[in-house]
Amino acid sequence: MDMKKRINLELRNRTPADVKELVLDNCRSNDSKFEGLSAAFESLEFLSMINVMLTSVSNLPRLIKLRKLELSDNRISGGLDVLAERTPSLTHLNLSGNKIKDINTLEPLKKLLNLRSLDLFNCEVTNLNDYRDSMFTLLPQLTYLDGYDQDDQEAPDSDVEGDGDGLDDEEEEDDDEENEEVEEEDEDDDEEGEFDALDEEDEDELDGEDDDEDEDDSEDEDEDEKSEDEEESKQAVQGQKRKRTPEDDGEEDTEDDE
Question: Buried b vs exposed e over 168-187: b needs ≥16 C-beta within 10 Å?
Fold first, then answer.
């Protein structure tokens, strides 16, 4: 994919001025031209162009806020003097795997007053005698060379990986905050679910109590009905045992005379 097309894809409906990080690794750069990349990317802080077949950075646009520049695995052999003018805020520069052979080629980097970290892995210049001492003498503003300071102390990950990863950290922090908000919402939903479950249990208990009361009422009604039936039976028996009438007395007297 050519660089211009890749940049259009990376924009994702944003304007160049809104972009802070741009990764163009493995794109094709025709004649070391930065097609699609211009000074319109005024907020750009991290630019990665690994293995894009660059032989020079002379066409690099002015990017005044750029802090980290990844140019490893290209074919750059010189012409670094433009960096001080075009990228004055640069703090991290990676030129690993390029065609840099001598210390003098790197002398223009003295003008990058904010440069803290420089990587030259797999460049021929690293094979020179007193390479490290010479580089720290040439660039006194430098803190880390190839990942180590002048006392051979390894750089912290944040310094080795550079400011581009700092941007990633900010995005990760935003994602963490969003995740925390989502988790809080889930916890609220769980609490609501627990309350709903408790409400359902309370309702079930109330329904159970109502059922018990209904059963008790039914039993009371049955007992009342039985009592009424017994009362009616008693009354019926008493009705049969009524007083004898005069006619009944006459019949008994006749029987006695006989």
Answer: eeeeeeeeeeeeeeeeeeee
Contact 113, 96 (CB under 8 A): no
> How far is it, in rounded angstroms, from Cα 8 to Cα 15?
10
d(CA 57, CA 86): 10
What is the residue whose two structure tokens read 């990376």? 10
pTM confidence score: 0.64
Structure tokens at 56: 């020079």
Do residues 81 and 57 make contact, with C-beta atoms less than 8 angstroms apart? no
pLDDT tens for each residue of 199-227: 555 555 545 555 555 555 555 555 655 65
Amino acid (1-letter code) at residue 230: E
> Residue 236: which H helix or E strand, with range?
helix 163-240
Q: How confident is the model over 127-139, as pLDDT tens digits?
A: 999 999 999 999 9
Q: Check residue 144 and report its DSSP letter.
A: E
Give the contacts of 174 (CB within 8 A, at least 6 positions apart).
none
